[in-house]
Batch of 3 targets.
Target 1
Amino acid sequence: MFNSCYCCLQVLILLVLFTLCITLFYNKVCLLHPLRCQCIKYSSKASPWSRIVEFSVTQPHSRCQTTEVVITLKTINSATGKNHQRCLDLKLSQTAILQECWNRINKDASKSVLKFSECGQRE
């Protein structure tokens, strides 16, 4: 009798641990990538270099099939109190320049955002 209860307890513990591992793995994946693409619409106009504070590049992943380049501008959104952000069209030469800077500076993918000043001076 004791052996069967002990065996059932072991199975129950294994099931709990398995469920916990799956949950932690799923949450880690969700934290690495958003649940969808960040950009809903893309700007087809380049922003003046002097207005860009920082930017990020998100590579395609399971929940978004396109590369996204998001710039943060110096201007403040009065509704949110945060800096305006804009998604850039991948066809813009400005986007290519930012991606090149991103790939040069963030080789190990340790940063989620780069300060524009890290790329060097642009007019």
Target 2
Amino acid sequence: MPQVKATVAMVSRPLTAPAIVSQTLVKVPGVAIMPGRCSSRSLRISCSCTQGIPFPDDARGSAAMELEDEEGEDSGWSQDEMDAISALFDRPMRQKPPNPRKKHRALPLPLPHKTRLPIAPAPKQQIRLAARASLSSRAPFSDRARKSPEFLIGIAREIAALPPDRDASSVLDRWARFLRKGSLSLTIRELGHMGLPDRALQTLCWAQRQPQLFPDDRVLASAVHVLARFDRLKKVESSSSSSSALEECVPTASRAVLEAMATGFVRAGKIGLTRRLLDLARINGRTLGAGVYVKLMVEAARTRDGYGLAAALVDELGDRPEITDLKPQDCTAVMKVCVKLRRFAAVESLFTWFKEFGAPTVVMYTTVIHSRCREGRHREAMALVWEMERAPQCRLLDLPAYRVIVNLCVALGDHERALRYLSRMEEDGFVPTADMYDSLIQGYEAAGRLAKCRQLVREADSAGLKLNRRLLSRLSQQIGGPHSY
């Protein structure tokens, strides 16, 4: 028997149910017709089968007659029927009621190592690394050795291992065919780091006898720096002819040699001789790098006796027409010296100038914040803290930055913010220091919160930190005995 699938649908030619179907139900497989709910206009049947539905003959005749009678009538849907169908779709869907027992878990705090973006190398660095990796294996050994730090430092170690009665030329002769101009500058500096100025002088004398290696300002500057650092420039440092020797040297020496000599004198602690060298360079119209002035300034500001020289160097550095060669670390060093000299306006001016050319570092921000705290401008210092936290290059703060920020929060009376910075500091992998706890305890003591002071003392003791004895004795008197913690 063929399967019949009948559904209520709209077809191109409507088939009106006969009167006999509406009065006496005809059993059609797959179609359910409810009495009283179908009309001659609303019932339409489409059959998907190869044979027709077996209606009785009288029903077929009645259907044919009614079809002819109702051809001219309107076969559309009435307004009541459309409203009834639309009401079925307007009924709202049943929503699942919320479960009161289900608790929403709070999102975890972001981890610093996951929120910070990794620092990718610059494109130029990538190109250099790729070129070095591809060409290093095909280059001859002499080209690879003349700039290889491992090879040049290895020569310095061989020279250092020689017995005292042997000269450095016994090692250098074996590697002479692999050396080029400028190669021995790293060897001489390494001998200086080892504390062997005599071996560095022997290396310079051997290089002077090699026509393919000398003259070379890089080798000469490295040797002069090592000799000046270890007080081996006897002709320049002799008391009788120091001025005449410097006057003869300054006009003819190269800038690299003069800067190496000045930095060597600074490392040796000869501030007066370095100052004399800078004066002669200015008289002869020789311009030295700003880094030399910064090194001398920092060395002079170590003691109070050198504050006058440091202030003069700050003014001299400010009078220069351009200081674009000032590195970020040198700029930060000048700011620290100005904070010692209480020249806070110079710190702000230098900070504003540097922001026009580059992005300040965490150390520079910390120095300016400390300067504003020393000046008493705590609100402006906190505004700079927020600016530093928004800077992309300052995503990770260091220990001095946290120390300055905690002291600033205590000075503002915002102790809860200081505690939050301590927690953030521990999340970043740093351990709070004793002076941070001292500052916090003093702030809570001034606010009269002795219970919080007792809690902080216990935390510091559990961390193995030694707090200020005077602070602990004062707290013990206020709380009521040394065992009250």
Target 3
Amino acid sequence: MDVFATVLRNRIADAANAEAAARQAGRPDEAELHAARLADLVDLAAEHDIAVETRTDIVG
């Protein structure tokens, strides 16, 4: 489970970074796709009782 949790947390971080980058680049449609993926990944983490951080500093 430890590897699963690590990979899932990495995928969550990647999706959050991609969403923030798309928003900064003025691509709201792309950002929404990443936001939906992020929500799915966070739901998956919750289903498996995996704690995830909420970050607001992902893209500087």
